[in-house]
Amino acid sequence: MHDSPVFGRVQTAMVTPFNPEVDYAEARRLAAYLVDEQANDALVINGTTGECPTTTDAEKKRLLSEVIAEVGDRAKVIAGVGTFDTAHTLALARDAEDVGAHGLLVVTPYYSRPPQDALADHFLTVAEATALPIMVYDIPHRAGVPVETQTLISLAAHPRIVAVKDAKGQPAASAQVMAATDLAYYAGDDAMTLPLLAVGGDGVVGTSTHFTGARTKQIIAAFLAGRVDEALAGYRALLPVYTGVFATQGCLLVKAGLDARGFHMGGVRKPLLPATPEQAAAFVRLLDAAGL
């Protein structure tokens, strides 16, 4: 746990509005809302929740540039650049640096299931390609392979590998890495925010934080101040939303919820399909019940 973690405490993996092309004006409006009203310290652009597999490199670069122009003086903007191709990842990383991103989120290369030495080489190659700090995204259920404990410990020796978005769901393994390194650890699953804090974590890169960001920040502050009962009560009040946003693919329900709150998300790109009316209504009921 760090007093001033590199990317703050609360980050949101922001969805990408479409109309059906990328709606850059609505993206700027959403980014401002997330920073100014939902108290996000940083935004992750072009991540999984941002439907990065279905946006072009040109769309990614412009979206990043627009968000930086909107909130880059008030929050850090982190570019999701991870792909299953190291050369493509390097190209996206350089694009992100060119437009002024504050950091990079680099997911484990997926589908090809690289062994650990190849994973380490991939992350280190990206770290050498720009001057930006890197957050490793460890999400075995999407990538097919974990970034193992010893691999993470070895990666921490590189000065630009500074953080982990941890969606592994193994807090004891994460605690081992935190004990052995200075990596900042962020929950990559909203419901793991408080459990990860308990073993030394720093915050969250969230999905439901499109709606829960400000209150999640209060929960983290209460825990860090030693008001554990208050933090636990706040966490339990939001737990139905933390978990309910993943009743189907999280992007679908975030967009449905934002549409219900006056934003214009314009649906999703295939292969995704919009949340059904029943799924959307169920999620909005969770938001209402939580006072969001």
Tell me the layout of helices and strands:
Blueprint lengths: L9 E4 L10 H13 L5 E4 L11 H15 L4 E5 L5 H13 L4 E5 L8 H14 L4 E5 L1 H4 L5 H7 L5 E6 L4 H10 L3 E4 L5 H6 L4 E4 L2 H16 L3 H17 L5 H11 L16 H13 L3
Parallel strand pairs: 1-2, 1-8, 2-3, 3-4, 4-5, 5-6, 6-7, 7-8
Helix pairs in contact: 1-2, 3-4, 4-6, 6-7, 9-10, 11-12
Counting DSSP H or I runs of 4 or more residues, the number of helices is 12
Model regions low in confidence, pLDDT < 50 over at least 5 residues = none
| Estimated radius of gyration | 18 Å
Strand order of the largest sheet: 1-2-3-4-5-6-7-8
Rounded mean pLDDT is 97
Gross geometry:
globular
The topology string of helices and strands comes to: EHEHEHEHEHHEHEHEHHHH
Largest sheet: 8 strands, parallel, barrel
Proportion of residues in extended strands: 5-15%
Structure description:
By secondary structure, the protein is α/β, with parallel strands linked by helices. Helices cover about 50% and strands about 15% of the residues. It is built from twelve helices and eight strands. It has helices spanning about 25-35, 55-70, 85-100, 115-130, 140-145, 150-155, 170-180, 195-200, 210-225, 230-245, 250-260, 275-290; strands spanning about 10-15, 40-45, 75-80, 105, 135-140, 160-165, 185, 205. An eight-stranded parallel beta barrel has the order 1-2-3-4-5-6-7-8, surrounded by five helices. Strand 4 (about 105), helix 4 (about 115-130) and strand 5 form a beta-alpha-beta unit. Helix 11 packs across helix 12 (about 275-290). The mean pLDDT is about 95.
